[in-house]
Amino acid sequence: MGKQAGGKSARQRQMWPIATWGRAELPPIVFLHGFMGAGADWREICELLAEEYYCVCPDLPGHGANIAGDLSAQLTIAQLAIDLAALCAELGLHEPVVVGYSLGGRVALSTALQFPSLMRALVLESASPGVEGTLQRESRSATDDARAAALLAGGVPAFTKSWYSAPLFQSLQRYPVLLAKLQAARSANDARWLARVVRDLSPGRAASVWAELASIQMRTLLVAGALDVQYTSTVQRMAVVMPSATSLIVPDAGHNVHLEEPIVFVQALRQFLASCG
């Protein structure tokens, strides 16, 4: 059963910093960035959509300008979904489409499950419903604890360089200018916050929601890059169990489809939104 959207959480919630494109009277789309990112990551996409939609791009806690909160406050995917619903209510966004990439996709998916009447449609890019199996979850939690410790010990620039050298981001090596820009922007993040995000929002600690996917009735677009074999498989599996979902595998793209193939991403998003009525 979903919760009532827009209610305040038990803690005193600070409004997330946002970047916006388009006019407020246009149909709203909320874009949620990935780990180490910021709302401004969506600039290129939103500039292409600004004549048709009101694009709202918040900084998730611990990212961008959203580092003024209490470091000891609860930080979970489920809590971020509650805060996102409250943000939409505060901004007066009526039935927005929510687009989430990677970490942002996990928040968007949790929001769809907790507040099924909040959004008109859902778009998930390179997002997973979670890690299954006790041993796999324990292993992922331990890996992310080690990452958090390394981040605090070695600093954000070194962590960022290591992060983008992982196989998951291999396709970005084809775009050295884009990769250098990403690494420079990510290196400006706050180490204490990023360590908390790595540790507390680890997929090994967040609840797996695979069993709940069938309950999502809203129209959903699932996007992955063909070069990202892991998430291509995940997206195809999700599409089978979600009753109103369609999948899109983008050729010659990796984990970060909207940055690697922005024109293709916008075209797919426009077509999907048109089909939603």
- Dominant shape: globular
N to C succession of SSEs: EEHEHEHEHHHHEHEHH
What would you give as the CATH superfamily of the domain at 18-131 and 207-275? Alpha/Beta hydrolase fold, catalytic domain
Helix share bin: 40-55%
Q: Low-confidence stretches at least 5 residues in length (pLDDT < 50)?
A: 4-12
- What is the CATH architecture term of the domain at 18-131 and 207-275? 3-Layer(aba) Sandwich
Mean pLDDT reading: 94
Provide a count of the helices.
10
Q: Number of DSSP strands? A: 7
Class from helix and strand fractions = alpha/beta
Query: Which CATH C-level class of the domain at 18-131 and 207-275 is it?
Result: Alpha Beta
Q: Report on the biggest sheet.
A: 7 strands, mixed
Radius of gyration over alpha carbons? 17 Å
